[in-house]
Structure formats: C-alpha cells, structure tokens
Design goal:
5-stranded parallel sheet; Rossmann fold; about 40% helix; alpha/beta; single chain; globular; about 220 residues; 5 strands
C-alpha cells in the first residue's frame, strides 16, 4: 500500500482530506503541528483522535514557536483580538503569514524520509478568498519547489483535493465518507465550547446547515 502524509490540524477540512486519502487507497501518516495557536491543545486532541480513527501508521507531532514569535496573526498573538466573520475582501487578522509554506515544508521532509508518495492538505476555495497561501497557484508553485528540491528519484505529489470546492461540499463529502466530525475542532478563539461567531465557526456552521446535517459540536451561541 502506498503512503500519504496528511497535514492533520484537527479541523474538519484536514480530517476530510485524511479520509479522502484513505478512500484513494493510501496508508496514512499524520503530521500535526502546534505553533502557538490559541486552541492548540484542543486541536492536538482532535488530530490524535482522528489519526486513531483512521488507524494511521504514524502520528508525528511537531511543536514549533517560530510562527508565534514572528507574530502578525490573531491566532498566535494574544494582544490581537480574533474578529467575527466578515464579508469584506480584506485579508483576515487570522491569516498566519506564509503558514502553509512552513507546514508543507515539514510535511514534505517527513514524506521524503518515509518514502511517502503524497502530501494531503485540506485547503479549500473559501480559504483562498482570504488566505493567499491557499490558492491553487500557490500549490502549483509549491509542487515545483518539491520537484526541484528533493533527492533524485523522489516523487511526492502535493494534493489539495478541495481547493476548488466550498466548505459545504467538504461537509457533504465528509458525511459520505463517514468522517467523525464530533472529533474535529474549528474555532479560532476557544477550546470549549466553540465561540460560534469567528470566521472558522461561521463557515463550519453554514456548511453543515447547507449540507442538511447537524453539526455535532457545541457552540457558545447555541
């Protein structure tokens, strides 16, 4: 069986990507990173549980404080407030500068060391509206970096299966795949209960509603 490294944050998008990878026949190795985000404890617990549910062959947890030390994001800087969901076109305060390049670099190193053939990430179309490192062009460019910067004979594919799909489509796909969404976490602000009003909570709640299913986690605003 071929192996894929999945960037498993503990959120619904990465969990669905992990189940997608398994559905495609990959054996899963999960990579979870704690980088000083507000809900890192809850995210770790959820990522570990999803890896267990998938019977992952490996679960690698990397703690790094460089993104927190760099700052520039309300996810890692306690002096910045996490804003509520907004319809404007501005880059949100929750954007962590060039985060996906950092995470993908670690995932590719892990994949190359293990001989894995793919790296899966759960970025989607509603992400790239606000996060420049979630755009299709970014992943295409990063694939070129991987092809150029790994040892000869290495073939690692960067897979972002939902990059052209909406959050609702992810929820619908995950429900079909049997993703245990009760073991995922999306809130940017709190570890229990979810705030219900930040960007991530709002997108998630709307996705489940449009998918005709009840979100299995609790919200402070319920």
């Amino acid at each position: 069986m071929t192996e894929a490294v999945v960037l498993l944050s503990g959120g619904m998008d990465s969990a669905t990507a992990a189940y997608e990878a398994r559905n495609e026949g990959y054996e899963i190795s999960a990579l979870h990173t704690s980088y000083g985000q507000r809900t890192e404890g809850k995210e770790y617990d959820c990522a570990y549980r999803i890896a267990e549910e998938l019977d992952a062959s490996d679960f690698l947890h990397i703690e790094t404080d460089h993104l927190s030390a760099i700052g520039g994001s309300s996810l890692t800087d306690e002096s910045m407030a996490v804003g509520d969901a907004s319809d404007d076109d501005e880059i949100p305060d929750t954007y962590v500068p060039f985060r996906n390049a950092n995470l993908l670099s670690m995932a590719v190193s892990y994949a190359e060391a293990r001989g894995a053939e793919a790296v899966f990430i759960g970025a989607h179309s509603e992400d790239f509206a606000g996060y420049p490192d979630c755009r299709p062009a970014f992943f295409e460019a990063f694939q070129g970096v991987v092809d150029t910067g790994t040892k000869p004979g290495t073939a690692i594919s960067i897979e972002a299966p939902y990059v052209e799909r909406s959050k609702t489509e992810i929820a619908e796909r995950g429900l079909d795949l049997g993703v245990p969404y009760e073991h995922t976490w999306s809130c940017y602000r709190a570890e229990e209960p979810a705030c219900g009003t930040c960007d991530s909570c709002s997108y998630r709640r709307e996705a489940f509603e449009r998918a005709g299913s009840e979100d299995p986690i609790a919200y402070a605003t319920d």
